[in-house]
Design goal:
The structure is a single chain. With 199 residues, the protein is an alpha+beta fold. The chain is rod-shaped and about 165 Å long. Helix 2 packs antiparallel against helix 5.
């Protein structure tokens, strides 16, 4: 056999496929085409949905971050206002305390006796050469109220017009007690406000 004859035996002859046989053909039916189209649509929809969710989540996160920054920026002036209002309330309380303190001094000038006793009581027991410095109007009250029965004083009264009425300063050789109104008021305010700067 010649070469061309052997090749001819190997080649199969092509035949037109039968339309009635549906199984092996590469042509698609209308329902198959519809199924394929639905499958492609579903796959594309799922991919688009996932991409959309990711983009939406990212956009929401960015907007939330901007909103947080905006809220922080809005809250900052409010915290500043809180501090200002707090300071103003403390100042108002101090002003009221000063006015009440002064009113009490005017209504009961005799309270200076208790102030002097308390201030002298703060000195060490062995204090000598004690001077009680106070306003001249208060000196007369102290002389009458704290006069010793035998006429002898344990301290010397010194009239000092620079000291406000109702306050005094006690001075000994080794110690000093400031019971002036400003010092007592500042101690009172410090106790009320809890602020140790005033003490």
């Amino acid at each position: 056999m010649s070469d061309s004859e052997s090749r001819a035996d190997e080649v199969n002859r092509w035949e037109v496929p039968s339309i009635e046989q549906g199984g092996g053909s590469g042509l698609m039916t209308a329902s198959g085409l519809q199924d394929l189209q639905k499958e492609a649509y579903d796959e594309a929809y799922a991919q688009g949905h996932a991409a959309g969710l990711e983009a939406g989540t990212k956009e929401i996160a960015e907007r939330v971050a901007r909103l947080d920054a905006l809220l922080v920026a809005q809250a900052k002036p409010l915290s500043d206002v809180d501090e200002i209002v707090e300071q103003q309330i403390v100042e108002l309380a101090m002003s009221v305390a000063r006015k009440l303190f002064r009113r009490e001094l005017k209504q009961d000038p005799g309270h200076i006796v208790g102030v002097v006793r308390e201030a002298v009581g703060l000195l060490p027991v062995a204090s000598r050469d004690v001077q009680v410095r106070l306003h001249p109007d208060d000196a007369a009250l102290i002389r009458d109220a704290l006069a010793a029965p035998d006429g002898e004083q344990a301290w010397t009264l010194v009239e000092d017009p620079l000291i406000d009425r109702g306050g005094c300063r006690i001075i000994s050789e080794t110690s000093q007690v400031n019971a002036e109104n400003s010092a007592r008021l500042e101690a009172l305010i410090a106790a009320i406000s809890g602020d140790e700067r005033h003490s």
